[in-house]
Structure formats: structure tokens, C-alpha cells
Design a protein that fits this description.
alpha/beta; seven-stranded mixed sheet; six-stranded mixed sheet; 31% helix; globular
Length: 413
Amino acid sequence: MGTRTTSQGTVLVSGASIAGAAVAFWLHRYGYAVTVVEKSAGVRNGGYPIDVRGIAVEVARRMGILPRLREAHIASRQLTFLHADGSTVASVHPQAVAGGVEGHDVEVPRGELTRVLYGAVRDEVEFVFDDSIDTLTDHEHGVDVTFRSGVRRGFDLVLGADGLHSRTRELVCGPERPFHRYLGYCFAIFTMPNTLGLSHEALIWNTPGRAAALYAVRDSAELHAFLTFAHPRPPYEALRDPVAQRELVAATFAHDGWEIPEMVAAMHRATDPFFDTVSQIRMPRWSSGRTAFLGDAAYAPSFLTGQGSSLALVGAYLLATSLATHRGDHTAAFAAYEREARAFVELNQAHVATGDAALFPTTAEALEKRNQKLRGLTTTPPRTGRPAHTALTLPDPADAGGPASPAHPATSH
């Protein structure tokens, strides 16, 4: 690893995904020397489609990456909801369910967003791949870090942007469980061949307590497959055991019809399966000493809200701007970051309660109520988005001594 110095200080960011790359971008713009460490061998490609909505679109515009995201916009045309026997409940416009705004919000493959963010900062920031933080020692003048590789370095600040199961958070704040709010579901995601000929659309199948989705990104030969199910408690014993994960999913869906048997078989063959609980992270404070957290490491909202990527982009912007505004006083900066962001985060997290996912009802009665609501929707995109997507005013980077904000202010949609 190289060493960089700057008058503004040195910052280590753990995690090179959306939150990590975005905060590195803004910190560099404000004059900090930034190192990003990522345990994977490179920037992670692939992944399911994600949304950038509301005020997060303005953050992307200020970063100069919005044109790239609009080029990559998926433009899904419809969601078709299905009964357990495969018959149609309703076909609706995706934004009618997601709460987004056609022509304003963007939907892109997750890997495309991470590539765009990395491309915007890779020549300005030090990236260290295939490594991670092993130990942290916080002291009066900085943080001493030992990496898994054995390298030791010191930084003024450390930012944890390493996801729901953050190793940095565990080192600084202790075990995950006190911060982990399980929402009552588990899920598996993987890719499989598009044998159904789907295009720019998704099929969502439901029976009480179980759901499946097949998502076609444009005219791809592959589908993103989801299997989601209610489970009374987090299956901690399976979280680190891929074989146990597949067995749990297969047993849960063993007696279901439609395309479920083919999906389960494809899951067993998949080279990219991902399994986890549907959970949120709720921390009383997002910082400790010289370390702060952002993105899913601090406030994962769960994919049920559709706001994980947007909160990551907005949180990165607010954290970096607070550090620039309160230069030399990280305690004041971290406190300002929480004041700016917490209400917005909690408003978005509150969109889903335990066992209350709107798309995945757990009882026949709740499923029928959901289906009735779906039948009342149309294939016409909504004119306005959810207030929670825009319930925030962004500070201007120029006020923090950074580059001037683009000419057009943030607007609510």
C-alpha cells in the first residue's frame, strides 16, 4: 500500500461498494487523502436491479454520474403478479408499486452503479483490493489499523461502509445482534436461464408466507431469480453454510408449483447464489471515537423498502459534507451527519414492519387484501413519488469549502 498525505487529513474507507465509493468521491473533492480497502478481489459486478430515487438522484447529478445512470436505465415495463397456480392477479407499472417517478428516478443493475462510482474516483483515490481491516486502535491523534495482509498503517479517521454484516462495526461497536432488526423473512437470489422469453418485466408469484420473482433486465438471456419466505427466527446456523442455505430454501418450497421446481433446481446449479435474512440495522449512534458508519453498515433499510442504494448515496454525501464543514473536529462532524440524516433514514426504514412486507403477505387474508389493491392500480406510471424519497434538503458543497454545486437546485418529485 502506498502512503498519501494531505492538509485535510487521511481517511480509510472499509468497503468499495455504493456507500464506500460515493463517500470516497466526495472526500477527495473536499481535499482528503482517501484509501478504500475491499475484501473482494475487485469491484463487484452483477447483482439485481436497484433504484436511485428522489433526493438520491440529485446526489448523482452533483457527482456528474447521472447521465451514465440514465444511459444504463433499465426501463422495466410491467410487473405481473400471479396466484399460486400461476394465473394472473394483475399487471401494473413498476413505479406504481415502487413509488418512483417515471422520467426522474432511475433503475440500473447494481453492478453498473458500482462500476460508474468506481470509475468516477479510481484515478483519484487509493483502492486496496483483496484485503480487509483486522484490528483497529483508536487514540487521541488517529486510528492505527492492522490489515488482514499484515500491513499496518495509521489514519486520521475510519469509515465503515462494509454492509449489513459489517466487520468494521463489529470491531468498533461489538457483535451485530444488538443492532440487527430481523423483519421475519429470508431470501435467496441467483441467476438462471431466461427460458420463458421474458423482456423488460418481472413475474411475482405468491402464496401465503412464500414468494418468488423472475426479473428480466431488458432482453437478457438470464433472469434474476428471487425466492423469499417468512421464517420465525433468523436462521443463524445457515448464514455461513451455503449447503444449509440451499437445503432450507428447497425444503420451504418443496411442494409448490408454477416455475418453483425449476427455480429451486436452478438455485442448486447457480454459480452466484446469495442468501440472507431480510433485516435492518438500527444503531443508537453511527459513530464511535474516530470511526463512523454509513450505508447498510449503519442503517440498512432492507430491500423491502427499495431505498438501500439511495440511502447509501445520500448518507455518503452528508457524511463527507459534514466532515468538510467541521474540518479538524470529527466529533462535531459526526454529530452533524446524524442530525442531517437520521430522520430521513428512519422515515424510510419505517416503511416496513416485522412480518409486514406489502409484497409478501404471510396470511391468506392479507394476500387477498394486497391483491385487491393491485387490481386497483394501472399500467400508467404515477405522477409523484413517495414523500419519504424527497424528505430532505441537501447542503450545498460550496458551503463546506468544496466545489460549487451545479446550477440547478434539488427538486422534489
